[in-house]
Amino acid sequence: MNKIRPIVSSVTSFDVAKLAGVSRSAVSRAFTPGASISDKTRKKVKRAAFELGYSVNLLARGLNKQRTDLVGMIASGMSNPYRSEQIDALAKRLVHEGFRPMLFCIDEGMNESQLLSILLNYQVSGVVITSDAPPAEICEECARMHVPLALVDRLDDLPFVDRINGDNRKGGRMAAESLIAAGRRNLIAVKPQKVGYSGRARIAAFVERAHEASIEAKVLGVVASEYNGGMEAADYIVSRRHEKLGIFCPSDTLALGLLDALRSQHGVAIPEEMSLIGYDDIPQASWAFAELTTIKQSVEEFAKVTVDVLKARINEPDAAPKNQIVSVNLVLRKTV
């Protein structure tokens, strides 16, 4: 039977070094990702640390380095499947690269000064902000305090701040081209009232490509967002069901709401009567009830590019700002 180790709060790296028979610097290297140390020595140190109940004081280590290995992740709309996938992939990538992510889920009522105080007091190595929801003031203050900052799916133009976006123009144009190739000559893009930068860019590119083909593309505004916005759009679209419409939604959740309403409430056959394309390729888009054709942007690729950009900014804080574009591709299923 394994013995239960008592928790000893006063154990230090000196104690671990003594038990393991190594130097204190070897203990430090054993707990530092990527540090030069043999596997044999690392295992000796980890075994001694386990026996003593020792853990690294990351905050104290950060104070000695003038920064910690913590990275703040600021996000909103976590109920959106794509956003939660994106944050999950980003957190895993940060851990893989030796960082320790701290997630802040914010809404419009959150105290901005409180959030900034937390980030700065923890002396984070950097901050990643996703989506349009976090106020621009947070971005500006991080930039002013010279905290390395990466903006994902945002348009803010700030000094020494890097941006990572999907190729929204390519995705929007690709959606239009797919619908046109399917023989659709009456196109509609559904636009929620609270649409973010990425959604606006996708719709603009969709309309642009349609006009290049001398095809009219109507932008249908809806009040609600995501799934409910798609449900709301159904009434208007059904009124034109005999026009062989081609419909584009700038997110899969919006498209799934529309798809559900058209089929269950109005008996519309898709793709026989009309075609529908979403965006993001969330897991639900591939489920049997939907088989939604969509534009895919890889959350893993987004995470890799974002962390690479953030690491480069940490190492070269005065480098020129980067604007990285992550490619997208069409996933053809059964709604076109």
UniProtKB/TrEMBL annotation:
SMART domains, alphabetized: HTH_LACI
Pfam families listed in its UniProt record: LacI, Peripla_BP_3
UniProt KW keywords: DNA-binding, Repressor, Transcription, Transcription regulation
InterPro entries: HTH_LacI (IPR000843), LacI/GalR-like_sensor (IPR046335), Lambda_DNA-bd_dom_sf (IPR010982), Peripla_BP_I (IPR028082)
PROSITE patterns: HTH_LACI_2 (PS50932)
Signal peptide start-end: none
Gene3D superfamilies per record: 3.40.50.2300, lambda repressor-like DNA-binding domains (1.10.260.40)
Record keyword Nucleus present: no
All residue ranges annotated as the HTH lacI-type domain in the record: 11-65
CDD domains in alphabetical order: HTH_LacI (cd01392), PBP1_LacI-like (cd06278)
GO molecular function list: DNA-binding transcription factor activity; transcription cis-regulatory region binding
PANTHER family to which the protein is assigned, alphabetical: LACI-RELATED TRANSCRIPTIONAL REPRESSOR, RIBOSE OPERON REPRESSOR
Name this polypeptide is given: HTH lacI-type domain-containing protein
